[in-house]
Every structure is written in C-alpha cells, then in structure tokens.
Amino acid sequence: MLPWKRVLRPLAALLLTAAVATVPAAAAHAADAAPQSGWNDFSCKPSAAHPRPVVLVHGTLGNSVDNWLSLAPYLKDRGYCVFSLDYGQLPGVPLFYGLGPIDKSAEQLSAFVDKVLAATGAARADLVGHSQGGMMPRYYLKFLGGAAKVNALVGLAPDNHGATLSGLTNLLPYFPGAADLIKATTPGLADQIPGSAFLAKLNAGGDTVPGVHYTVIATKYDEVATPWQSQYLSGADVHNVLLQDLCPLDLSEHVAIGLFDRIAFHEVANALDPAHATDTTCASAFS
C-alpha cells in the first residue's frame, strides 16, 4: 500500500463514520418519510407567530431526512413550517448527498427556497444548516441573490473556513496526487479543504452580507470542522455560540450536534425567534 493511502485511511474512516450515521435514515428517505413526519408539507402556511418558513440544509453525506429526524419535528411542534432538500448528488451515488461542487449545490438551494416561498406566500425564509449545510448557504446569500430572500442563517457546526478533519487535510500537500483525486471524485469535499479556491472566494471581502442575521453554534468536541473556532463568523450581525458555554456537560461532537442535541436545538429556536428567546442551559435537553 502506498504511504499516502495509509495516511488517508483515517480520513476515509471519518467519512464512513458520518455515512454510518445516515444508514438508519436511508430506508426512511426511500419511504418519503419527511412528509409523513409533518415537514416538507407544501400546503403549510406560516402563522403570525412564526411568519417565515424554515429550510433545513443537510451536511456532507447527508440527505433531506437523515440530519432532521429530530430537529424537524422539534421545530414543527413549535409551530414552524419546515422544509428540507437534497443537494449535491453525484451521478450514481444514491442517498448520500453534499458531494458535488458547492457552488452548484448553492444553486439548488436557491431554487428550493424559491419553491418554498412560492408555496407558503412568505417574503423571506430562515435557513438552518449542519456542517456543509451551515456554510454552503453563505454562497447563496453572497452571490446568488439569497440575501433578499433570507432573514436568518443558523449554522450547527458549520465549516465556514474549511474542515481539516482534526488536521488530516493538512497532510495532503505531502502526498502528490491525493488532492487532485479528491477534487476529481468528490468536488464537494475538495471545496471544503482550507485554502480551496471555493473558500477563498466565499470569504473574500468579509464573512457576511447585510440584511441577514447569522448564528453559529459550535462544539469544542468537533472533530471535523477544526479547530472549532474556525466555524465562527465575523460581522456586524453575528452571534457565535459555544455549546459548552451554555451547558458544560454537553459532549456532542460534529455529528451529534446536528442529529439529536436538544440543547443545540433550543439555541436554534432562540435564533429563529429572538424576541421570545429563553436561556439555553443543560435543562434545555428536556424542554
């Protein structure tokens, strides 16, 4: 086995870990579980209390169900019209999305937001994304006219300045051909490597655009978007939150914060409705 393949084996293991987390959702996705669970209901009309639909944006290797089996019902139960999409599919790769070029994924998000706004009659939407799904929408906001259609972007462990996979991607330059292989086979992964042309374009001239409220919810146990501080955004309308500042006992890492952490979900709800926000604490796990 070539040396660089031995080094990349841990990287593949991390990706497979994320994939395994989506396996239980695969059958649900095939059964079109989202509408049956009460979200992606295009007949839903936002209420006066929650006048904007919420669009959930999955992470790398996710799909429109896997990330949201917990958060979508959580928000639906609180009176929101909730929607989710699949994006970034590679030819011949079913169920596991978010692997295509991220600028093209942002175009898919743009079309989906337009569809949601047309169906609900709302003027603007709120976006909640996990991992790549918290970062990719920033391209839509910045370059595809999304700022006029989006009120807030909430990112759960977003890799806003790249994903080093606990430093593994820093080793790529030492193994000729490895970066080119990733770019050729999974461009969505290549776009997330710190220093990529995509990230340089995304972050040039500032992290944010006017008119959008940004919230980043990070965990210090993140093993993918590392160092975790790189998830934070800079800007005039940014709220950066470390989960352990809200609850020191919370041990969620990169996957868990998006899949089932109700403490993080409580902070998402606060970001979506700041006028009625309540303190997020360890007890929020039971709320």
Automatic annotation (TrEMBL):
GO molecular function: lipase activity
SUPFAM superfamilies linked to this entry: alpha/beta-Hydrolases
InterPro entries noted in UniProt: AB_hydrolase_fold (IPR029058), Lipase_EstA/Esterase_EstB (IPR002918)
An example Gene Ontology biological process: lipid catabolic process
Record flagged with keyword Signal: yes
Signal sequence annotation: 1-30
Pfam families: Lipase_2
Domain of life: Bacteria
Keywords, comma-separated and alphabetical: Signal
Protein name: Lipase
Organism in which the protein naturally occurs: Streptomyces yokosukanensis
